[in-house]
Amino acid sequence: MNQKIGLTRQILAAVLILSSASVFVSCEKYAYDPPKIDLTTPVSFKNEIFPIFNSNCKGCHSGGKLDFNSLASTWTSINKTTYITAGNPESSLIYTKLNESSHSTKCSTEERNKIYVWITQGALNDNE
């Protein structure tokens, strides 16, 4: 009787171990693959970044410290308030806000990546 219980426990342990292993193996198939970001292609503030701010941010930020109503007011407000640290998106408030839960649905991943590249490239104003 004790041998049957011991054998049953061993079989149960083997089944649990194999089941656990199969769960971990199947997860690899769904591993997150972050999007590739091309830092070499120049990003235009006028043609690419301003339209993102205008379509996604203007609804809530149309005056005050941040003003996305026009190309000129957008440029002035993001620089006057030091929301941009040229060359460093991780310390740029405008980029870090886009990744917070309250703003994460405002822009697509592609749009956030464009802003990341633009800031990395020096956050230049090609409208001047």
Describe this structure in words.
There is one protein chain. This protein has 128 residues and is mostly helical. It has 2 domains: 1-31; 45-120, no CATH class. It has helices spanning 2-28, 45-56, 71-80, 93-98, 109-120; strands spanning 62-63, 66-67. Strands 1-2 form a two-stranded antiparallel ribbon. α2 (45-56) crosses α5 (109-120). The protein starts with a helix and ends in an 8-residue tail after the last helix. The mean pLDDT is 82.
SS strand fraction = under 5%
Radius of gyration: 25 Å
Strand sequence of the main sheet, in spatial order?
1-2
Report how far apart the termini are.
89 Å
The helical percent reads: 40-55%
Low-confidence stretches: none
Largest sheet: 2 strands, antiparallel
The number of distinct structural domains comes to: 2
Structural class: mainly alpha
How many β-strands, per DSSP? Answer: 2
